[in-house]
Amino acid sequence: MEATEVVLVADVGKSRCRVELRSGGELLGAADQHGFPGVHVDNGPTLAFELLLETVSLLPPGLPVSTLTGIGAAVAGVEASAEKSQELATMLARRFSVPAAVLSDATAAQLGALQGAPGTTLIVGTGAVAFRFDEAGVLHRADGWGPYLGDRGSGRWIGQQGLQAVLESHDGGPATSLTAAAGALVESPEMLPGWLAANENPYRAMARFAPLVLHAAEAGDAVAHDIIGEACRILTHTVKLASGGERSSSPRVAMLGGVVGSEFFAALLRKSLASAGIEVVAPLGDGLDGAALAATRRGLIQERYIHRDGTNWPD
Q1: Angle at the Cα of 310 from the Cα atoms of 296 and 13, rounded to 5 degrees
Q2: pLDDT per position as a tens digit, 141-172
Q3: How many CA atoms lie within 13 A of 24 on its CB side?
Q4: How many CB atoms lie within 10 A of CB 94?
């Protein structure tokens, strides 16, 4: 591969920061570490910039970082502050002396999943959001409103519902094997509120209980199965909203995120979506692939949602 094809791509999220050095379709090296609160917070651009540089320093030695021709960074919090996102793009461009593109992690996921084409992507991780870019490049979004007001059907939501079911069972409600699963966290269900409050990130802590809910549901626990069924119904509704509801005659969606990595859950969700007339298509890539696309191509239909440094681009 020619050195002129080397690009740096990053996914700077709230839980993880991942960087990859790529040359065309070849992965030259990768590194990852902790995440950060988001570029929209006080001093957010500097926090993201320093974290990204620190993660780049963890790449294996001897890689051609000095021959970069572009940077694409999918960053948490971009949708909340265009000004700070632009600032981060400028900081990256100045540091590496190459064009830089900064975009939201959800936009990057949609770009990667559909390789720049219009369409809908459902992302189900700790949070949940459906993104659709129409033919004109206009964004249509459903949910993704955070743990207080949204992210329904997400890993956090599933885990929270599971923990609530444990407490309800403790109070005399339906028995569930989730009580035994929660025993790995606390000695008694009465201790769950204190355990959660002591967590630095309670939403991530609840999301980590989601795989146990999925396992219990797959094993036949009725309470857990009801939670998963409701999550599928909620996510199907989210996709319908993002897809334009009845205005979209044959909606299609690509699914990404850790929760849909469960074959059991993905199968139930595909069935729920199919019952609503929504076809599931295989994603062509992920958020890092979307960041790479933003770094190497201009004129995408999503351009208005990509923050570029404004320098070094060819005419």
Answers
A1: 60
A2: 999 888 899 999 999 999 999 999 999 999 99
A3: 4
A4: 13
